[in-house]
Amino acid sequence: MTKVTIDELRQQQVLEYLYGDLDANDRVHFEQALADDLDLKRVFELEQRLDTALPPGFAPLIDEERLQGNRWLLRQNLQKATRPRFSLLNWLRARPLFVIMQGATMAMTFVLGLLMAGLPQSGALPAVSSSGTAAVSPLALIGEDEFEIFELRVNEFDAETGAIDLTFALASESQLRGNVADERIHQLMAVALQDDIGSADRLETINALEPVRGGNDVYRALIHVLLTDENPGVRYQAVSALADLADQDGVKDALRLALRQDMNQGVRVEAFNALSEHRDEETLALFREQMQTDSNEYIRARSREIVESRDGQDLIL
Amino acid sequence: MASAQAGNTAAFERLIRFSERQMLAVAAGFAHTPDDANDIYQDAMLAAFRALPGFKQESRFSTWLHKIVVNTALSNRRKLTRNWRKLNALQTEYERSEQYVNSRSPERESLDEELAQELSRAMRRLSDNERMAFVLCHQQGFKLREAAQIMDCSENSIKVLLFRARNKLKELLADFH
Known about the structure:
Chain A has about 325 residues and is mainly alpha-helical.
């Protein structure tokens, strides 16, 4: 048996002493062996040096704020996970036949109307409004068999004349094939970014939208994601996509906001880098603040560099 | 327990309340960034909620829960996307690491910031299993037998993982001891 192997065995004995379930007797035996066996003592002392620098029990601090944040998020996730999934069949079972027939007729008329009207000309499509809602209805992209009515309410019904007033809601799953440059498709994706789709899908969507990120609706959706998404990976993807548009005022405002308040340093560094290419007075004022307050060393140092270089130029002038 | 197993989310939240800090600490010990740790914790707790009806109470609930955190952490690491890698690479460069405190000392003394940063870097050099064994035994105080149960392997494997982890850390943290 080689010397190394013997030392390894000694180290394993030490590990059993440090982390094992040794009873009082075994511990006494080990301590006795330590006193008698100089090689074991040497191995033990080597291990102790690590434990002195890094004592057992040192673990990441989970403070109350982080704990509360995770509790809140878990509650949301649990609620989302347990929300009952709608089944059209169950819903229909609970309704009288005439309501079903009337509702189905209304829904089909509505969808067929949309299909008959066809899609509007792309030039006529209004951009996403500043409040972030799309003017083009995703319903225009729903196929004939791709919807379910998941809520229908009879508001008024006149049995004599047959006049009826209904409210209903549709759910659908549709498949689209086309090009992301198609305005109808990227507008739909921009709207979806602002709705409740999963993080992985948002990441994929932002990735796919990158070639058309300059479009009004797309960049507004990216700004929405950057400022509101709870997933830092998604915000990072959004800020990266927006970096090339940092010369636009709306984007610059969003980047400044992200630099000032995003919790994630990766997102802030990306926002900072984009802004540093397009400095105006407002951005410089923000850099002046960040060079004192930002927790990120790179942002503090680079802000100071930029501000001092600017102050130097002012002095010369 | 019965109520949580029947799908009552409030009962589930009460059930995990006693161990949530430790679960988060295990995730944080393993993850590269605090955000990753929070994601692992969320995914693990959702997985636990879904798997709870099948929990037969043959092991302790906390051991079962730890097992789910460990499996989630290991599988999340394997499916990191390109985007996360990009983000992590950026953060590695500039991000502050987790703050380490001694949970076993009453005054909760903190680890020196420089050592904490170096430890975070060194932990990234360990394999996933070495890191997990070290987190469970050294940081969280689990015995070899318990860690073996949580990681679903033999006590001997845990010893080997710890042995390797400690040897690498001794080398990587040589300036601090």
